[in-house]
Amino acid sequence: MARILLVDDEQAVQKLLSYPLQKEGYEVVRAHDGREALEQDDEGDKVLGLEMGADDYITKPFSIRELRSRIRAAMRRASLAPQPEAVEVIESDALRIDLPRRAVEIRGEEAQLTYLEFELLRTLASTPGRVYTRQALLDKLWGGAAYRDPRTIDVHVRHLREKIEQDPSDPEYIFTVRGVGYRFRDA
What we know:
The chain has helices spanning about 10-25, 35-40, 45-50, 65-80, 115-125, 135-140, 150-165; strands at about 5, 25-30, 90, 95-100, 105, 110, 130-135, 175, 180-185. It is of the alpha+beta class.
């Protein structure tokens, strides 16, 4: 049974959301705020959560239907078995991406990437020079983007740049293609 941590400061909203999720077979753990949420998870859950990073969020107002769809999509992503990679390591100057280990080194130091940051980097770096639209990246990373704002990609790119670029405002690896999307530097 999958466990969902539901964080909301309104008890009525927690009750309203918990019932249909429990009915669908999820274990729902409720928390009033972020601090209480951290107290609800054991150490293993905290470590896993920090390493994986959150990959979606939903803002109010939203429908139960949308919430269920997002949860199902997250569960599908979590259950996908890793696909065999033709290339095991991608290297570009001081950047090294070890695909089987899901490890990234930049200038000899390990970069701590979230699940989505790694997938975004892998997608871009696997085809240097290819321009990806925001929509294409949403589709690739989430398997569909019906409920997501394409600008979500901008946030993930910014966080990724902060972790791998020497100067995020003048990137060496991930370039913006104005009005279109992003590309990884040419090989």
